[in-house]
Design goal:
Length: 317
């Protein structure tokens, strides 16, 4: 039944999944052209799912992570219904659920992973959540910008959940904070970051570059880990809105490929990738998901890479 979820994989890069919906969804107001995507929501809070084509009609149904249809319960106000009529209420219990939509006009089924987050209030005074070190978010948002308020909650991740595809070409495990700690781990992610990364990957492929996937070097960082590596306090990684990545498939050796084909792997390959992304940005590809774009040279610990984020204002370094 949940065929898409069954396509588990190993390693960080898998073959490029290019399938797009014939009829896009609109999830929390963002256009989602992918047959698999994710929603991050607080317990019992609502989110919206509509067909982008307003004349289209269809239905939704909730499933548990094993593919069993959720039974109607006090924890779930509606386990099925009509897409677009009313906001959908998330289950009361934190965890991973699957919501499937069926489009009556096209027959298409789209799968949304619904991650009901564990509330921030569960982080104890020592900065730990169920033993996992989160650390402390700054009390004052940077320049009073609400995107720097502490996140409302975190997605709990068990060992078996790292391979969940949260969008066609990315898995939950790729975005975990790199701190050396056991499970359960916790992560915070912004859906807009996934939309931006998928857009970059799809555009690379549609422009003739056969790129299987993006290797995420750093996605979410807990405030604890971010501080431990000596990074600035207000890094967008800490809010799940940034990714450092490179392309590594030929040769697959753990470092950036020679993207500009000059025979060496160095900062210029990150520049090539950043320029590609900057051109997309200039053409308006990212909408409200514009943000930072940084180029990093290799050092003793890593090869060259780029940083992107979805802070909502342009920044380039
Ligand atoms: Ca490589
Ligand atoms: Ca090169």
């Amino acid at each position: 039944m949940l065929a898409l979820l069954a396509l588990a994989r190993t390693g960080d890069v898998f073959s490029f999944e290019k399938t797009l919906l014939n009829s896009k969804l609109s999830v929390n107001g963002s256009t989602v052209p992918y047959p698999i995507f994710s929603v991050f929501v607080m317990p019992s809070k609502t989110f919206t799912v509509e067909f982008a084509e307003k004349s289209h009609t269809g239905s939704f149904q909730f499933f548990d992570a094993n593919g069993e249809a959720l039974k109607l319960s006090p924890n779930l106000p509606a386990n099925s219904g009509t897409v677009g009529k009313t906001p959908i209420t998330a289950p009361k219990q934190s965890g991973h659920y699957v919501l499937k939509t069926t489009n009556n006009q096209t027959g298409e089924i789209a799968t949304l992973n619904v991650f009901v987050m564990t509330p921030l209030e569960k982080v104890d005074k020592a900065g730990k959540l169920n033993g996992y070190i989160i650390g402390k978010y700054p009390e004052k948002p940077l320049k009073n910008n609400p995107i720097y308020l502490p996140p409302q909650g975190f997605v709990e991740v068990s060992p078996g959940q790292t391979d969940i595809r949260i969008s066609p070409n990315f898995t939950l495990g790729q975005f975990l904070s790199k701190q050396q700690q056991g499970f359960p781990k916790y992560v915070h992610l912004r859906a807009g970051l996934l939309l931006k990364l998928e857009n970059i990957l799809h555009t690379l492929n549609s422009e003739g570059y056969t790129i299987e996937g993006l290797t995420i070097m750093s996605g979410y960082r807990t405030p604890f880990y971010n501080k431990a590596i000596g990074n600035v306090q207000y890094s967008r990684h800490v809010w799940g809105g940034a990714a450092d990545f490179y392309i590594d498939q030929s040769p697959k050796d753990g470092v950036m490929d020679d993207l500009n084909k000059d025979g060496v792997v160095n900062r210029e390959d990150a520049v090539w990738l950043a320029n590609f992304i900057a051109n997309m940005s200039k053409q308006g590809a990212f909408g409200s998901r514009i943000g930072g774009l940084g180029v990093y040279d290799a050092n003793a610990a890593h090869g060259p890479f780029v940083h992107v984020d979805v802070r909502g204002t342009l920044a380039r370094w």
